Amino acid sequence: MGLFSRQRPRHARRQAEPAAERAEPAAETVETVGPAAETAGRQEAGASAYEPEVVQGEVAASTRGLAKVYGHGDARVVALGGVDIAFEKGRFTAVMGPSGSGKSTLMHCAAGLDAPTAGQVFVGDTEIGALKDRQLTELRRDRIGFVFQAFNLIPTLTAEENILLPLSIAGRKPDPAWYDTVIDTVGLRDRLRHKPSELSGGQQQRVACARALVSKPQIIFADEPTGNLDSRSGAEILGFLRRSVDEFGQTIVMVTHDPVAAAYCDRVVFLADGQIVSELLSPGREAVLETMSHLDEMARARRESLPSGV
């Protein structure tokens, strides 16, 4: 059965913790799959590359043979080279890699924001490549939540109106009990009547997180959600995302370059040159930093080996 058959012990769920308290969690780095140096060597030799972790539980989203190519001829760039991955329901996954590794492209294709060149993308059991434009729009609206680095709030709407906007567009009313839970969890009860210009960056991102959660999506994709925040506000957002997984069973896939952010996750997947090359389960910051440093060194060596002007 390949991708969905091999079993592995389940991780222990983390509790949300301030970043400072997780500075040296080396003992929690329980497994590294396909070390970057070994898998890179296999890729250069033309052999089969890294085999990703196989989830045991329900799959929230997955890709099979996902490829994305931009441009043609001499301008052709392979952003993804046949990626197989499954994101388990109720789990917090980080996607990391050097600049140009394909991590944002993977998220955009998995979320239905960009069309792959080849391969399949599934949200639950639904293959999104088979959907018409209107069906895809409805799937993104009803089953996927988004949190972006730039907040993407409408400046003329209040915090509450921004939070409820996806439901309003869909003609749905919020579940009152769930809405109250979300608002209290993100700590926005006294800011609901404020417009984005009256909120701090951290508060605006909390509005964006609440907007993603309020419709009870099957999966949330977060693209550098702490990239525009200071360390304190970033830790608050990461703690909230961690709680939404632990307490509400939410599924989150987060693209990040920050080892501290990745250490809040259950699983970290590393990309290089459009391929998954390694991953960590229950990661610590130092283990993430070590893997990223090695991948950055490999990427730098490849760039330096290219002929001038390439």
Automatic annotation (TrEMBL):
The keyword Nucleotide-binding applies. Keywords: ATP-binding, Nucleotide-binding, Transport. SMART domains: AAA. Residues 14-25 have a biased composition (Basic and acidic residues). One of its GO terms (cellular component) is membrane protein complex. Residues 61-298 form the ABC transporter domain. It holds the Pfam family ABC_tran. InterPro entries: AAA+_ATPase (IPR003593), ABC_transporter-like_ATP-bd (IPR003439), ABC_transpr_LolD-like (IPR015854), MacB-like_ATP-bd (IPR017911), P-loop_NTPase (IPR027417). It comes from the Bacteria. The keyword Transport applies. Residues 1-50 are annotated as: Disordered. GO terms for molecular function: ATP binding; ATP hydrolysis activity; transmembrane transporter activity. This is ATP-binding cassette domain-containing protein.
